[in-house]
Write a structure and sequence with these properties.
Order of helices and strands of chain C: HHHHHHHHHEEHHHHHHHHH
Number of strands of chain C: 2
Low-confidence stretches of chain B: none
Helix content of chain B: 25-40%
Bound molecules: ligand MGD, iron/sulfur cluster
Strand order of the largest sheet of chain C: 1-2
Largest sheet of chain B: 7 strands, mixed
Shape of chain B: globular
Number of strands of chain B: 28
Structural class of chain C: mainly alpha
Mean pLDDT of chain B: 94
Largest interface: A-B, 67 and 74 residues
CATH class of chain C: Mainly Alpha
Largest sheet of chain C: 2 strands, antiparallel
Number of helices of chain B: 26
Chains: A alpha+beta (about 270), B alpha/beta (about 750), C mainly alpha (about 450)
Mean pLDDT of chain C: 89
CATH topology of the largest domain in chain B: Rossmann fold
CATH class of the largest domain in chain B: Alpha Beta
Strand order of the largest sheet of chain B: 5-4-17-16-15-6-7
Radius of gyration of chain B: 29 Å
CATH superfamily of chain C: Formate dehydrogenase/DMSO reductase domain
Oligomer: heterotrimer
Shape of chain C: globular
Number of domains of chain B: 3
Chain lengths: ~270, ~750, ~450
């Protein structure tokens, strides 16, 4: 048991999203909704009220036609590690321990039945990952047949967010256990958005495991909270010390620069 | 008295303190919180045994393989089938939300008969027996009146057993008027027919190309079999191939290409000929192919050298000569260059000249039926049914020719010209006795939807076989609801554009949820009750028998792995690929006596009244076909495209400023076809003077999640008949935008 | 009619006037209750909060009201611990105002959370790292302390005081009040600070984040400090308003002067600290996160540099100067202006530290999000104000809140009248019982 724990302590699940490949199609968003019983309303056009665990942002380079460029940026929960592991912006503030950092997987969980809806975590998360259930979730009669039993439907009045499809991890672990294994293979635990992405823009796996593609792509510097060594890779708001586990890759400089804030002097230096 | 009061107070206080010490309040507090965790109005998904079913999606012509996760009898998630040709494990937005269609409120749950006025939405549920009886009676009447040719069937596709059963039914019945929903497939087929001499499907070996030159094709906006195209596009990136997008608006495809060349709208053909000019002038074409396997090159050469010099083309397209020259050089010097066309998702057929001009580029570099090139795939031929038994009525009806003019002298090689019907109905040139619609939704998807609607209004009897209450079904007189593609068997041949002969098998992933029937069974049953040669023509006991019989020995493999691939297939080599009179690739076509030319498509309206140009654009987040967005898809639409019920029009900030339209401002858009209230969204990526709106919004049917949101851009754009093909060649329209 | 309940030796307005005032305020209160019920039944979709504004008007109201209620702990500290005896003449009112403020804060919190029935999870499943946990515990404890401090006042009502048990209880409670005052001061120090910590710890929100001293961010200390400075100002303000409404003087000038002076020096210190904090934040903290501090004051319709100037200069330095200068603070008009400015200033600071924190974009591809409250939010925020007015009306009428009132407003009727009053009262057993129900609201 101890041995098993020791090994799993080393897991750190994360994603690399190739923004050169991402097409902004939205399949990841829909796959996530379908997988995770995400509720929907008659009017979903207010992004500030809409519950989407995965949100695809559209960025522009701000230049006039025809120098204009756009880039899409899919944004699941960043599963921030914090300045020291477990000190995610949101986890540290939740007064009721309704959200937690799992040391074994690096996944930031959300316990719906524990959350009492104070929304402090929403204020803490700079990525706008956390979403409040302003409304009761309602599936039209008959449509509740499509609900996935691996994830509970969230009640009104609480916060929810991307879980890295944690139930898939559990299922994979159970399966491995049944087969007499204690470890799962890279392909056995993949998130719904990764699986669905038609452009293969999302790669998911254990950042600590050198045989996993995420590790090879992001080249996380484990001595520096996983800072990417790959010069094309970056993390959102790296400078805040949130140490996210979502890495983005882009061959375009303006996109990489849009991942963080820089003062004018810093920008001038970076652009030259 | 005093004492009594005092003891009362003590009693009260003591009682309160005492109660607080009992477990009661704590237990209640706990119970209340537990109740809040189990609100009865928050659904709890029942558990059950997990299992999965493979099938093929036919929500669009993409034909992707799917694996559906089930819990007992409930389908809970649709995923891409691993290893399926094309989509290999991934899916598009629409299909990922497909269960919302299957279980959703827009399903037609039983046969229904209109009781109110047409389009009023008042229906009466009837039995299948009654429904079939009524339709049979109507069809018998038409036949008895010797007007079988006035029966029109409109389907989403003409491939596979179900469309062919309808086609066969029509023939035996005596009507040549079978239609399929228009798309670029029509123009590609025609271009290939004229230049290759074969009836074939344009397919693209994109994955193996190293330079894709796309004339506005939305490779990652839904063009072709969309999931396969996404995958291909990513593979190209991994392989360091170049994708160059030629487009007026910075679409997603343009943004994600290695090079975006902005072009004046509607001038793509001129650019193609300009590129041909450079390639020929610099002798960068494939000598072997041109010399040995083509005909009419000299005429073509003369034409492009004389008329399409880069400087001439610059004036038309707005692209500077250097870009044209360098583009031509990169294209011609690539190992596997490929030029493709058909704007956006390819929903409108487009100008034949443009397709011919672009295809001529492929010919110049000799990348036809070659690795990384365009392949003219033979049409599927697995359906081998005996000849249709005809009676006198049928023979007479078939004699009369198609009502849309396809195959007539004017348009001898076109197959279906649905776009011509509305005008013809209005002018009395075409009379329809009855219309059957299945897998198609012309009231929403055809150009100039108001005109389509009034034309449909003139049809005395409309039978819809739709699974969903769509815009066209709303206008029906009777609905014979088909199973959805998640509840039925059906062969799904050849995903659009895939260079592999494939048949996929759609299998029921759940039992039919409602009182619906398979369209194949419906048409067989109608044939049986009509009797005579029609019954004889569709003599199968039921559709499943027909399907298994037709697929023959492919059935086992199909039902086992979900698809069948012709492993032995080889694309025809140059020597045997062309069946023109010359047996070679034709640059000029004698049949229509036409060279590839840039013939600008003239848009309606004057540029003084309508100073702007409106382009429709396609988005993977909005289903623009016959099926409307499920609720999940609505959640993906950005608030700069739809806000509340208001749809947005994209406009260059510079143009917006000159019109005094602030970001988000309300405006009236007017075109020669119609007008609507919209809001404006400033977008730098659109050419000044041009505005754009997404396709697929402004539904009036389906459910509350999608209906009455935004504007249907098809209502603002009229069809423009291509003089060479009769197909709709409109790529936009003139428009004006004024403050609301 | 209710004269038997009115403290001895003071004049109160006729009962119809009193009841009318209560009735009018109750209408407002009921409007708030209606909104509250709507929110409980239908959920927080009744508000204009959204996923960008998880905290909004209510949390601001909470923070503001707690800062303004800070007069209770700070005056208590001065009176009981530092032995500034004159302050006994205003401490009762400070405690009452504190009690109202804190009960209001708890009420609003009860509406604000999405799952009020699970509100107690904050205690049961407490996360000790969370500032809100600290707030919840301290706030609740301090509210109990305030209740204990308020109870003796209620017990001093003429009729209740007649009951020996209550008389003794209240006497004994007074004896040990210093202990509670000290506890209160200690608790307040922490929860005021923790409230400051709420935004100060948000290292994902550069506008709110502050460097830490030990485990606390700067805002922790700034909040306590500003509450200690501005709470007493608010006490003075409300007392002045009460004087104006009741048309009598209730507290002697030397008491005002003392409290105002102390508040003035506290405010001076606070403003200096705040300025240092702002400069450090603007020149060190924020640039290290890649921002220029002016980014937080531009590109939007509301939050501009005016906020800083108003908060720190107009509502900070200016009142501080007025208050530390004996001449100006002894000018009644200037005093009222100064304490009003201070109260506004601290409220503005709380607004900024809640709402501007959330409004300012952090991701480069996002924009400012502005917000205005729904009527339901406004109504439920006004609800406690109405409740506070009613509490004050009742407490002022029936409880001896201001020890100096009798002296400052001697009743000079002929002796005979006084005698009549006394005789009228003697057989008033019946009146006593009849009056009892009216007492209940004050007790509850
Ligand atoms: N039909 C039937 N129903 C019963 C009973 C019965 O006898 N028959 N018995 C009843 C009784 S007495 C009980 S106690 C309940 C038990 O019911 P459950 O609590 O549902 O018990 P299990 O199914 O044994 O385990 C639950 C899950 O925990 C997972 N799991 C195992 N180890 C860990 C771990 O370390 N961490 C996490 N997070 N998950 C882990 C397992 O994979 C499994 O999916 O069932 C009750 N229901
Ligand atoms: S599914 Fe893939 S390509 Fe589409 S938006 Fe998501 S990450 Fe981008
Ligand atoms: S992204 Fe937001 S919700 Fe996710 S771990 Fe980081 S702070 Fe928490
Ligand atoms: S809203 Fe829920 S998860 Fe977030 S901080 Fe509050 S209790 Fe914790
Ligand atoms: S990882 Fe799972 S929960 Fe998170 S966005 Fe992707 S699909 Fe949704
Ligand atoms: S592209 Fe078409 S066929 Fe493929 S999954 Fe999407 S809707 Fe289905």
């Amino acid at each position: 048991m101890k041995e098993a724990n020791k090994h799993s302590e080393m897991q750190k699940f994360g994603m690399v999203i190739d923004l050169d490949k991402c097409t902004g199609c939205g399949a990841c968003m829909v796959a996530c909704m379908a997988e995770n019983n995400v509720p929907f309303q008659e009017d979903e056009t207010d992004p500030l009220l809409s519950v989407k665990w995965m949100r695809v942002y559209k960025m522009t380079n701000g230049k006039p036609y025809p120098e204009t460029d756009i880039c899409y940026l899919p944004r699941p929960c960043q599963h921030c590690e914090g300045q020291h592991e477990g000190h995610s912006p949101c986890v540290s503030v939740c007064p009721a321990t309704a959200t937690d950092y799992d040391m074994a997987t690096g996944i930031v969980s959300q316990i719906y039945t524990r959350c009492f809806g104070c929304r402090y975590c929403m204020a803490a998360c700079p990525y706008h990952v956390r979403l409040f259930n302003w409304y009761d979730p309602i599936w039209p009669p008959g449509m509740e047949k499509m609900l996935n039993p691996d994830i509970s439907v969230r009640m009104r009045g609480i916060v929810e967010k991307c879980s890295f499809c944690f139930h898939r991890y559990q299922l994979a672990k159970d399966q491995a256990y049944v087969e007499g294994r204690r470890e799962i293979e890279e392909h056995e635990y993949q998130t719904a958005c990764t699986q669905a992405c038609p452009a293969d823009a999302i790669v998911f796996g254990d950042l600590n495991n050198p045989s996993h593609l995420v590790h090879q792509l992001a080249q996380p510097d484990l001595k520096h909270h996983g800072k990417p060594k790959n010069p094309k890779a970056f993390r959102l708001l790296e400078r805040l010390g949130t140490n996210p586990k979502i890495y983005y890759m882009s061959s375009k400089k303006w996109v990489r620069l849009a991942g963080d804030n820089y003062t004018r002097e810093e920008l001038n230096k970076k652009r030259t | 008295m005093k004492i009594a009061r005092r003891s009362f107070l003590s009693f009260l206080i003591g009682g309160a303190a005492g109660t607080a010490l009992t477990p009661l309040p704590w237990k209640l507090t706990d119970d209340l919180s537990i109740w809040s965790q189990n609100w009865p109005w928050t659904p709890v998904p029942p558990k059950g045994a997990a299992n999965q079913v493979n099938s093929v999606c036919s929500l669009c012509p993409g034909g992707c393989g799917i694996t559906v996760r089930k819990i007992d009898e409930r389908a809970v998630k649709i995923e891409g089938m691993d290893g399926y040709p094309g989509n290999d494990g991934s899916l598009c937005t629409l299909c990922l939300a497909g269960l919302q269609l299957l279980y959703g409120p827009s399903r037609v749950q039983a046969p229904m008969k209109r009781v109110g006025k047409r389009g009023e939405g008042r229906w009466q549920k009837i039995s299948w027996e009654q429904a079939l009886e009524e339709v049979t009676a109507k069809l018998s009447d038409l036949r008895a009146a010797d007007a079988p040719e006035t029966l029109v069937a409109l389907l989403g596709s003409d491939r596979g057993t179900v469309p062919q059963l309808f086609n066969r039914f029509l023939t035996a019945y005596g009507s040549p008027n079978f239609f399929r929903t228009p798309s670029i497939q029509d123009t590609y087929e025609l271009a290939l027919f004229l230049m290759h001499g074969t009836r074939s499907m344009a397919s693209f070996d994109i994955e193996n190309s190293d330079f894709v030159l796309s004339f506005g094709s939305g490779m990652i906006d839904g063009w072709g079999s969309s999931v396969r195209m996404f995958k291909a596009k990513s593979k190209l990136r991994d392989a360091n191939a170049t994708v160059c997008q030629i487009e007026t608006r910075l679409s997603n495809t343009a943004a994600k290409s290695d090079k975006w060349v902005s072009i004046n709208p509607g001038t793509e053909a001129a650019l193609a000929l300009g590129l041909a000019h450079v390639i020929i002038k610099e002798a960068r074409y494939n000598q072997d192919f041109i010399t040995n396997y083509t005909n009419g090159f000299n005429k073509f050469q003369q034409l492009v050298l004389e008329q399409y010099s880069p400087s001439n083309v610059t004036m038309v397209t707005g692209i500077d000569p250097e870009t044209i020259t360098s583009l031509a050089r990169s294209f011609a010097s690539a190992r596997h260059p490929l030029a493709i066309c058909g704007r956006g998702q390819g929903a409108t057929p487009g100008s034949l000249n443009e397709f011919i001009a672009v295809h001529a580029l492929n010919a110049l570099v000799g990348n036809i039926n070659q690795k990384g090139g365009i392949w003219a795939m033979p049409e599927p031929d697995y359906i081998e049914w005996p000849d249709v038994p005809m009676d006198a009525v049928a023979a007479n009806g078939m004699q009369k020719g198609r009502m849309d003019g396809a195959g007539s002298q004017n348009f001898p090689h076109s197959r279906y010209l649905l776009n011509r019907l509305p005008d013809m109905i209005h002018s009395g040139e075409a009379t329809i006795g009855a219309l059957m619609v299945i897998g198609s939704n012309p009231v929403h998807t055809l150009p100039d939807t108001p005109k389509v609607q009034t034309a449909l209004d003139k049809i005395p009897y409309i039978v819809s076989l739709s699974s969903f209450m769509d815009e066209t079904t709303q206008m029906a007189d009777i609905i014979l609801p088909n199973h959805t593609n998640f509840e039925r068997y059906q062969d799904v041949p050849a995903p659009e554009g895939l260079p592999q002969p494939i048949i996929g098998l759609s299998q029921p992933i759940v039992e039919p949820q409602f009182n619906t029937r398979h369209a194949g069974d419906i048409i067989i049953q109608l044939a049986q009750s009509l009797g005579g040669n029609v019954a004889e023509a569709l003599a199968w006991g039921d559709y499943e028998t027909c399907l298994q019989e037709t697929l023959g020995d492919k059935w086992d493999m199909l039902s086992e792995q979900g698809f069948w691939v012709d492993e032995s297939f080889n694309i025809g080599a140059w020597g045997e690929a062309f069946e023109t009179d010359s047996g070679k690739f034709e640059f000029t076509n004698a049949a229509i006596n036409r060279l590839p030319l840039f013939n600008p498509i003239n848009l309606d309206g004057s540029s003084s009244e309508y100073p702007l140009v409106l382009l429709p654009y396609d988005s993977m987040r909005i289903s623009a076909g016959h099926i409307g967005n499920p609720a999940f898809l609505m959640k993906t639409i950005e608030d700069t495209v739809l806000k509340g019920n208001s749809g947005f029009v994209e406009i260059n900030p510079q143009t917006a400023a000159s019109l005094g339209l602030a970001q988000g401002a309300k405006a009236i858009i007017s075109t020669p076809t119609g007008s609507a209230e919209v809001r404006v969204h400033h977008f730098d990526g659109i050419m000044p003077g041009v505005i754009a709106m997404p396709r697929g919004l402004g539904r009036t049917a389906f459910d509350k999640y999608v209906a009455h949101k935004g504007i249907n851009v098809n209502g603002l754009i009229g069809a423009v008949e291509d003089p060479a093909s009769g197909l709709d060649a409109a790529w936009g329209t003139r428009a004006s935008l004024t403050k609301a | 009619m209710d004269s038997a309940l009115i403290p001895e030796g003071v004049n109160r307005c006729p009962i119809w006037k009193f009841l009318l005032a209560i009735a009018i305020t109750s209408v407002v209160l009921l409007w708030g209750v209606y909104a509250m019920l709507l929110i409980y039944m239908k959920g927080l979709n009744q508000t204009n909060m959204n996923n960008a504004y998880g905290f909004a008007l209510w949390i601001w109201a909470d923070l503001a009201v707690i800062a303004l209620g800070g007069g209770a702990f700070f005056t208590g500290l001065l009176r009981y611990i530092f032995g500034l005896d004159e302050l006994k003449n205003i401490i009762n009112y400070a405690v009452l105002i504190g009690f109202i403020c804190y009960s209001s804060a708890l009420l609003i919190l009860g509406i604000d959370v999405g799952q009020p029935l699970r509100g107690w999870f904050i205690f049961w499943h407490a996360n000790v790292h969370s500032m809100l946990t600290e707030v919840a515990f301290c706030l609740t404890c301090y509210f109990m302390v305030l209740t204990i401090e308020y109870i003796p006042l209620v017990l001093e009502n003429r009729q209740i005081d007649r009951v020996p048990f209550f008389h003794n209880l209240s006497h004994n409670m007074h004896e040990i009040m210093a202990v509670f005052a000290a506890t209160g001061a200690f608790l307040s120090f922490f929860h005021q600070g923790s409230l400051g910590g709420v935004s100060g710890v948000l290292f994902g929100r550069p506008f709110g984040f502050r460097e830490h001293v030990l485990v606390w961010p700067w805002t922790f200390f700034l909040f306590t400090w500003s509450a200690a400075a501005c709470g007493p100002c608010f006490t003075i303000l409300i007392t002045k308003i009460t004087e104006a409404v009741s048309k009598k003087r209730l507290v002697k000038d030397n008491v005002y002067d003392l409290l105002a002076k102390i508040a003035g020096w506290m405010l001076t210190g606070y403003v200096i600290a705040k300025i240092i904090d702002t400069i450090y934040w603007a020149t060190t903290t924020v640039p290290s996160m890649g921002f220029h501090f002016m980014q937080f004051y531009s590109n939007n319709a509301l939050y501009g540099p005016w906020i800083l100037i108003t908060e720190v200069i107009i509502c900070g330095a200016l009142p501080a100067l007025i208050l530390i200068n004996p001449k100006s603070r002894q000018n009644p008009k200037l005093l009222v202006i100064a304490v009003t400015l201070a109260a506004v200033g601290v409220s503005l600071n709380r607004w900024v530290m809640v709402l501007q924190v959330l409004a300012a974009p952090v991701l480069t591809f996002q924009e400012w999000v502005l917000y205005y409250p729904s009527w339901q939010e406004v109504a439920t925020t006004i609800l406690p104000v109405a409740y506070g007015v009613i509490m004050i009306l009742i407490s002022f009428r029936y409880m001896p809140i201001f020890p100096q009132e009798k002296e400052l407003n001697p009743i000079e009727p002929p002796l005979s009248t006084a005698a009549v009053e006394e005789t009228e009262e003697a057989p008033a057993e019946a009146a006593e019982t009849a009056a009892e129900p009216e007492l209940k609201p004050a007790e509850a």
